[in-house]
Amino acid sequence: xxxxxxxxxxxxxxxxxxxxxxxxxxxxxxxxxxxxxxxxxxxxxxxxxxxxxxxxxxxxxxxxxxxxxxxxxxxxxxxxxxxxxxxxxxxxxxxxxxxxxxxxxxxxxxxxxxxxxxxxxxxxxxxxxxxxxxxxxxxxxxxxxxxxxxxxxxxxxxxxxxxxxxxxxxxxxxxxxxxxxxxxxxxxxxxxxxxxxxxxxxxxxxxxxxxxxxxxxxxxxxxxxxxxxxxxxxxxxxxxxxxxxxxxxxxxxxxxxxxxxxxxxxxxxxxxxxxxxxxxxxxxxxxxxxxxxxxxxxxxxxxxxxxxxxxxxxxxxxxxxxxxxxxxxxxxxxxxxxxxxxxxxxxxxxxxxxxxxxxxxxxxxxxxxxxxxxxxxxxxxxxxxxxxxxxxxx
Length: 394
Description:
Elements (H helix, E strand, L loop, with lengths): L16 H10 L5 E2 L11 H11 L11 H15 L8 E4 L2 H12 L5 E4 L6 H8 L3 E4 L3 E3 L2 E3 L2 H7 L4 E7 L11 H13 L3 E5 L20 H4 L2 E5 L2 H4 L7 E4 L3 H12 L8 H13 L1 H25 L4 E3 L6 E5 L7 H11 L2 E2 L1 E2 L10 E5 L4 H21 L1
Parallel strand pairs: 1-13, 3-4, 3-7, 7-8, 8-9
Antiparallel strand pairs: 2-10, 5-6, 9-10, 11-12, 12-15, 14-15
Helix pairs in contact: 2-11, 3-11, 4-5, 4-10, 12-14
């Protein structure tokens, strides 16, 4: 079956953050929404059909997670990533952010320090600070067009108060797919210093060849014993609104502690439709995903070519993963607020301004190209035209 990713779908008036949130959060109704990290494609027919089938039952009471749930995860992770996990390692989370926030609260104490590697997904900072813990920055370095870890900086900042490191694997917003050797060196430092690692691997399935995702906990038993991995099908199959993710932790004591934090606010039950969507995605969704990856890569190539030919002041960090592009706009010589307003008010394109991703994000924007190519081209043209108007006004 051939899937049509060129189809334009009207998402307005569906209460979605990406479109209907423009007026509510940005006061920017009418701008092109290339900000919130979900896609504008229909979810795969296998998911839609599974939800329809469950809907036809017409009773939506309390449900449990049976072997179908666990086995679909086990099968998917082994097939896509070569990672053999056991049922007793798997737990639930309503979302990836909820998962690592529960971990922060269960495995650290108020006042403890947690390492975050900016520029990175901004809820990392929020979850640490809002939990009464302290953020310690270990900024990433740019080397040959991709981000790398700064191990010397990391070692220099480790003290007895450091209890945890939050890892974005693959990296959001830079799109770096960490190599096995990079992850091994990072984990070795953490193990030596008794630092727990919470690995956010939500983008694991959106990886472009020849890059290959390595689940951190798959590298060795020693690393697995000190790692809690949070994953989901939600980004991959565009079902974020179904609030279903999962946690993998081979260390029984860590998992017991995590589950306590999950159960206290009664978050363990989950969502009936989220469970059905996960099972359908992981058992029947692979052909759709393979076509999606080809389409997304074409969108990325379109942006790269357009910028080089028409807007050379903006440089794209070529992503190895995700549908989120990290655009270097420093040559535009705009301060963060001005850059934000330029895209929003002049180009009429809603993007995420880079400084929200922490130190090192200044002068960048994050653009979502998980949308029809016609929208990608429209956004690029609007940016180009806005820059031309600016130049003419000088």
